[in-house]
Amino acid sequence: MRTDDLIKALDADVRSRAMPLGLAWWVAAGAATVIAAVVFWLAIGPRADIATAMHTMRFLAKFVFTAVLAVSAFALIRALSTPGASTSRAATWMIAAPLLVVIAVVLELLSVPAADWGTRLVGSNIAICLTFIPLIGIGPLAVFLAVLRYGAPTRPVLAGMVAGLLAGGLAATFYAAHCFDDSPLFVAAWYTIAIAILAALGALGGRLFVRW
User: Fold this and answer.
1) I need a labelling partner for 65 at 20 to 30 A (CA). Which of 5, 8, 13, 145 fits?
2) Can you tell me the distance from the alpha carbon of 90 to that of 77, in angstroms, rounded to the nearest whole number?
3) pLDDT digits over 2-15, tens only?
């Protein structure tokens, strides 16, 4: 069987499932959000001064970065899970979150004395960040990998990695409400590493559980 014929057969199989794949992704997104919220509230919860922090640009910017990552990853993983679907447009949008972080870091470096750069980069919650973003995101990642199995991605490792980025963006959005380190320097370094852990786990999950 030619590759094109196989992709068409897989696509027909996906479309014939009891629950359409598109709907399955929205259900998964809702379930993953609930799971992340429950883990967040039970494990750490929001920071004590969140009402005050919400009036600062650095605090709000964290949610912009993480939400943009989650939304763009969601669009890409939906395309990757459908055989034959175009992924180029969704993949292009994946640059949005990193670009926003880079812009924020440049503005931070321009507005903060060089002597303070190291302090803002290190922050005070590295261990907590690297622990709780993966912890909050592991449940959503399992949900997203399950939906990838429901679909038929032709690049399961890539799809799994994007599932990890999606889970990481979702988890980091919740974690940002707890984090006392609002500097873009901290976010660029440690949020990125924490999300990369989930992306690596997702790629491994795609290789082991999603491939066909």
Assistant:
1) 145
2) 9
3) 555 445 555 555 45
